[in-house]
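seq as requested:
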Amino acid sequence: MIVRKRGEAGNKTVNPPLAEEKRPKIDIALMQTFHLVARTGSFSAASRELNISYQSAANHVRRLEQLYGAKLVEAEKGSRQITLTPQGRALHASLGEELETILSRISVLLHDVRSVLRVGVPQALFHHFFPKILQDFRVEAPDIELAFYERDTALEKMMMVGALDAAVSERSFSHPAITQHLLGTYRLVLVWPTDWGIPAEGTDIEAFRERPYITYEAGQTVRERALEYLTRQMQTAPLVATSASGSTSVTRLIEAGLGYGVVPEWAAAEVSSQTMRRVLGGMEPVKLWFAHTAFLGNNTYVRALHRCCQKTLGDTKLDLHL
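struct tokens:
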């Protein structure tokens, strides 16, 4: 889903939506040198292409590392070839392949007026929470384009290859090139069709042992957590009948009487005469994270989106608990 950038009428001057922050001045030549070093794999090849000395090329990258606050390249003694660090790969991947596009986008990025912010969000979280988050974000940043990717299992990889700038996820990303901030936690609930006649309280989970189980596609956090818990409680693995991509799909299948499932409490918050529910107090709450690539930590729009996510996802009315 893409929310397009809004146009400006006539010659009207539009004030920046957020206060500008002081930033170090970076010579765009440093970025150009880094790009060529990363692309060619050596300081020598980059220096020849730029018609500068080997030492100048190396100095450009070292200076960029100082400003960036992280090591971007590594070179073994006696070897003319370099390798990119994880932070270097993430930065280089975000630059694109065409040099003119690179220079244009980096210039925009460094001055915090990036024209597109690419955000990854699992589909169910997007449907339930992001209309409100976008309303708040538009107050602060009315002119930037937001490009959403509604996936779960691919978010960390997409961030590492430079395809995403930020993400909201139940996953804890382990890579040092990605920074995460805890937004809150939510509980999981067991949901089943009312016409099964199983009461909401006082029934052991073993009563579901022979029932069809509706769950999420392989690799999703809730699926893995729920399968582990149910297997432990029932002393056998649930009988998986259907897998779906999101909480909305899972709950609709349960309402249709096709099986029982475990979903986020906020996904089953609406009262339905077709289903029964029970909070699984024995399960550890699921953590919800806001993530961004490390070099965008001070980006005005990334910080604004983080604030808006914190405001909505920290609201106790949505059954999220800090």
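The mean pLDDT is 81.
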